[in-house]
C-alpha cells in the first residue's frame, strides 16, 4: 500500500497540468478571428491567440489586450483582461461587447481551424483559424 502513495501524488499533479487547457486540443495552433456571434456576422477587426500556461493575447478594434484562460478543456474562462485602448476609436462599443461576450462564454469546442465558444444560455461565438501559431 505504501508503494501506491507516490503514484497517487503523480496522478494528482497530472490532473492539475495547465496543458489540459484548450491549447492542448488545438487552441494554440492558430490565431483566431471572430466571424459570428449568435448567428450574426462580425464586421470589426479582431484576433485572439492562446498560448502556453493560460496566456491569451489579442487585438480588438480599439486595443491590444492580454488575459488568461486556465479552465481545463472543454471549459472556457476568459479573465484578467488588461490592455491599452486607443484614445480615439469609433468602435469602442463593439470592443466592449466583444470583451463582455468572451467573459460570458463557458465551453469551447475546437475542430481543426474552427473554434466555437458557447454558454449554457445558448449563446455562441464562432472563430476561424487565420494563421498557424505553432
Automatic annotation (TrEMBL):
It comes from the Bacteria. Residues 31-126 form the DUF306 domain. Keywords: Stress response. Gene3D superfamilies: 2.40.128.270. This is Heat shock protein HslJ. It comes from Shimia haliotis.
